[in-house]
Amino acid sequence: MTVAIEMGTTQAGIAATLDLEELLATRLLVQGNSGSGKSHLLRRLVEQSAQWVQQALIDPEGDFVTLAEQFGHVVVDAAAHTEAALQQIAARVRMHRVSVVLNLENLETERQMRHAAAFLGGLFDVDRDYWFPMLVVVDEAQLFAPAAAGEVSDEARKASLGAMTNLMCRGRKRGLAGIIATQRLAKLAKNVAAEASNFLMGRTFLDIDMSRAADLLGMERRQAEMFRDLNRGQFIALGPALSRRPLSIRIGDVATDGRTGNARLLPLPEKPPEDAHDLIFKAGENEVLRPASRPAPMDTAQLLAQLAATRPPPPPPGETLAREVAAAPPRPAEGPKASIDDVLREVLADPEAVYRSPAQVYQDFLVRCRQHGIHGRSLDMSAFRRKMASVRAGVDAETADTPEWDQALTVAAALSEDIQPVFLLLARAAHDQAACPSNAQIARARGSRSPRRALGLLEHMEGQGLIVSDIDAYGNRTIAVPALGWQTQPGNPDSEDVDEVA
Question: In which band, very low, low, confident or very high, does the pLDDT at 94 lie, cut at 50, 70 and 90?
């Protein structure tokens, strides 16, 4: 069944429709400067398609929360949840086919990127049984897929850009249809924008943005000037879900209103000058005065006088040495009780630590080292990753000191960082002649909640000759590590037990 939703009208007064099923397979890019009607277009698209397909909106300004009352969208306040919780919420959203709005307005830019990446990752990593069709609308996409590094950390930018790339490049097979909107094409990562096959280009004035818009629409550079002449709410449409040739359309009306400021002119209130003076400089009856963010500056003379008044009188000469000796902290009789391995195990004891990035875990590790009186910086980031992989693999101190395990670490050092934890987990089970780890345990070592990703990783490792996998007649799996000459005992690959051996 073909579902055509009405987006507005053409210049000839004919209804301009969008093929919803074609959109699910080809994705959409919306571009327009501030005030061009870009958010109005997204709202029209969401409202018209709400009854036909599940939706998720990534909303950095909290403008689309008004959809909840009339169209039943559930508003998820990202500021009230951790990244791990948002991943779980996103998985439940797909499982139960609930349309949601992820409200990011109460977060600063870097946390918006991290939380959006976690939510998109949860939508992406859900099991195949829940790959239902879904529109994923991302407003202000240049924030989440920037073309260049900005003021945010590289880790946040990479996580957000990776999630957006997955949505636009690999989301179609998982039922995810990305709809991204941006004010500036020049600020949007090219590999994300290039995956869209449908375009709605609104008013823009900068030459670089007009040039990129013309390129995406297959127009000549001299035709790019037309984007300056577009009115508010007018867009040039092109794509298999819209039109085979560039078509000018005007977006229709919407049923809900946003929470953004109204740009209409309003007359100023008529107040006599004396009343206006009192309104500004005198507090109202019910007004709560906010404390000053910082104390008023003090001149040098006042500061010296205050220091002199609070300085205690000098002690008698004979008491100075005795007081210093008494005040000196006692020197510890022995070194710190905890070792670096103990601190690392303490950090990884948090069930959510395995799903956090290594950089975040490393910062937590350094803080705990200072609490225990240990110099954590003696373990740099690369060495920390290797040691963390060993701890996640459940290697005890006795095994870690053996020459056999040194050989396993040498082999793992030549592998990529995402494979090392899984290789060491399998090597530890093979060394101890333990049961083969389940898919859930392998996914956890990889930092994922999806057992299906564990299967893909095992296939990759077997293709590289790192392991040899075998399934017996009872469905139990055995994995051998040829480089070490070790082999696990049979284990149930579908076991739900994800507890790691300490």
Answer: very high
